[in-house]
Write a structure and sequence with these properties.
Elements lengths: L8 H31 L5 E2 L8 H9 L4 E8 L9 E5 L5 E2 L4 E7 L5 E3 L8 H10 L3 E8 L7 E6 L2 E2 L5 E3 L3 E7 L6 E3 L8 H10 L3 E8 L9 E5 L7 E3 L3 E7 L22
């Protein structure tokens, strides 16, 4: 056994220096040999894309790449298969060590329930926004004869009317029935010939109809400002629906404010007959 003399101060210093060197060697070996070996220092793995994969597919996929995963959150996304990865951390392309855990967010197996909003009497656009805010999807749009143009008349789920407040799975599709601006009531075409323009317009609007094109043309013998022709014509047995349009021809020239030679709605009249 080797003995180191400690009889003199010089021997003590040599002894202390040897101990210090040994400790330094152990320190350097720990940080520059053992730790890199145990932690695979310098070895990196590129994180693959996991979004779009199911948890069933992840097991073997990550195991083959010396990675693991842990579900950090669950959420619902309409139209995406349950238990599908929608986000991940670290992100795709990041460099990590072997055995690193990737945290993922997956879609829930069952959709949460929401209360069906009231869509009736809303415009089509407002109904679409309301459904989106509730996490629902607008489905088929059916148009029905009604004076309320583009207004929602009914809301349907799986082919049946659904009342506001009814619980429905988030992401469900809701169909709507929308008015087309035309009534389904049929009327006789009102006679307008011989009426003044103002009288004709009152009759049209009073019948829940709409004034169409107003055309001014020369008509010898007719009182200026009176209706000399209309389309569709009256007295021929034709029917017209509420909300339909009637075009009228007026004798004479338009008022000065209407820019002579044009119709009241800006159209050029046909050649005089």
């Amino acid at each position: 056994m080797i003995k180191i003399s400690t009889r003199s101060t010089r021997d003590v210093l040599i002894h202390a220096a040897l101990i210090a060197c040994l400790l330094l060697a152990l320190f350097l070996a720990f940080f520059f040999v053992y730790l890199p070996w145990s932690t695979h220092h310098g070895e990196a793995i590129t994180v693959p894309k996991l979004t779009g994969m199911t948890t069933e597919e992840l097991e073997n996929f990550l195991e083959a790449r010396d990675l693991r995963y842990e579900v950090s959150d669950c959420t619902f996304v309409a139209g995406i298969q349950p238990l599908t990865v929608v986000s991940q951390y670290p992100r795709q392309g990041a460099k990590v060590k072997e055995g690193r855990k990737v945290y993922i967010t997956i879609t829930t197996a069952t959709a949460p329930q929401v209360r069906m909003p009231k869509l009736t009497d809303l415009s089509y656009r407002s109904a679409e926004v309301t459904l989106r805010n509730y996490g629902l999807v607008i489905g088929n749009i059916t148009y029905k004869d009604d004076l309320a143009e583009n207004a929602v008349l009914a809301q349907l789920y799986q082919g049946k009317k659904i009342s506001p407040g009814t619980l429905i799975a988030k992401g469900s599709t809701v169909d709507i029935v929308v008015g087309n601006g035309l009534g389904n009531t049929e009327l006789d075409v009102p006679p307008l010939t011989g009426k003044t323009l103002d009288e004709a317009q009152l009759i049209i609007k009073g019948s829940d109809l709409n004034v169409g094109v107003i055309i001014y043309e020369s008509s010898p013998g007719a009182t200026p400002g009176t209706v000399i022709r209309q389309r569709p014509e009256a007295g021929q047995g034709d029917k017209i629906r509420v909300g339909d349009v009637i075009d009228i021809w007026v004798a004479g020239q338009p008022e000065p404010s209407s820019e002579g030679g044009t119709t009241e709605n800006g159209e050029t009249p046909p050649p005089q007959q």
